[in-house]
Amino acid sequence: MNYIIREIKKSEYPLLNDFLYETIFQKDGNNLVSKDMIKHPALQQYIREFGTQKDDFCLCAEVKGTVIGAVWTRCIEGFGTVDKSAPELAISIYQDYRGQGIGTDLMKHMLKLLKNKGYQKTSLSVQKENYAVRMYLNLGYEVVDEKEEEYILQYLFA
């Protein structure tokens, strides 16, 4: 599959609503949660007024002029926060494009960007049953906390 990875354009920020919904791990594909779920304040903090904070970074994957995935960070007190100075990362790829290495490529680009910006670490939260756990661990993330259904992962820059 031919795709490019680039910084998201300000005019594309509204796409983060869709990608935020796509980040929600849903075990039962036949019984999806309502898209209104992303209106909850705990989730909105990941995208509300994106681009206004100094730690807001977003890269996207584009196929034939269409954005099909995004990875973004901001310093918040979210589900995967380990340190207020460490950006928390969120990533999402549309279903039809998953399992093709695009997510791994997006992650590698974001980790390089954060390292070049001088960050010491980044973190995220992932459901234990999410197949992406393996990708994160292969990229060098480590489990720093474990809850009933999720892991908190941290990546330390060398």
Automatic annotation (TrEMBL):
UniProt keywords, alphabetically: Acyltransferase, Transferase
Lineage: superkingdom: Bacteria
GO MF annotations in UniProt: acyltransferase activity, transferring groups other than amino-acyl groups
Domain N-acetyltransferase: 3-158
Entry-linked SUPFAM superfamilies: Acyl-CoA N-acyltransferases (Nat)
Matches recorded under Gene3D superfamilies: 3.40.630.30
UniProt-listed CDD domains: NAT_SF
InterPro entries: Acyl_CoA_acyltransferase, GNAT_dom, N-term/lysine_N-AcTrnsfr
Signal peptide: none
Descriptive protein name: GNAT family N-acetyltransferase
Organism from which the protein derives: Wansuia hejianensis
